[in-house]
Design brief:
globular, about 160 residues, alpha/beta, about 35% helix, methyltransferase, Rossmann fold, SAM-dependent_MTases_sf, 5 helices, Methyltransferase domain protein
Length: about 160
């Protein structure tokens, strides 16, 4: 992924994104509603491209075991600062979603891929991200991704991976 994306997010207040207008709040509320319906039990979840952790913290507060990653060091720093006030731990890493070699095959029950596809503009990068997400996902786990297609229709895709 290009330094252009990192540079953009180093200077953008991602931590305010979900609260700055009603459409963004609706996005968050709709997403967590779906999470609550789908994600039962104490799951091991990778939030790939977690931003500043809105979904990661929500799911960790529900009792899930979270690993939050993002390509932007500032975002991981913000997550780590917020973790100081929490009673639980969360693994965090600065990570490019197209290269997850630091994780073993099949080690997560759920992979949230709620951010990378907005920025991966070529087929090769998108395929690498998708392949890596599926590789680290347990058999029968959930890959949850969001993206805005050319027509800007907000969509969420949930895949149950059966291999």
């Amino acid at each position: 992924m290009s330094n252009e994306v990192v540079n953009y997010y180093e200077n953008y207040r991602e931590e305010d994104r979900i609260t700055t207008n009603n459409a963004r709040r609706i996005e968050f509320l709709t997403t967590i509603y779906k999470f609550d319906k789908l994600l039962k039990g104490n799951l091991k979840i990778l939030d790939c491209a977690a931003g500043t952790g809105a979904y990661a913290f929500y799911l960790a507060d529900k009792g899930h075991n979270l690993t939050a990653t993002d390509i932007t060091p500032r975002h991981i720093k913000i997550i780590n600062e917020q973790l100081k006030d929490r009673t639980y731990s969360m693994e965090t890493k600065v990570l490019d979603a197209t290269d997850m070699r630091c994780f073993e095959d099949g080690c997560f029950d759920v992979v949230l891929n709620m951010g990378p596809f907005y920025h991966l503009t070529d087929d090769m990068s998108r395929n690498k991200c998708l392949s890596e997400s599926i590789r680290v996902l347990k058999k029968g786990g959930y890959l949850i991704t969001a993206y805005i297609p050319r027509l800007y229709l907000n969509q969420m895709l949930v895949m149950s991976v059966i291999t």
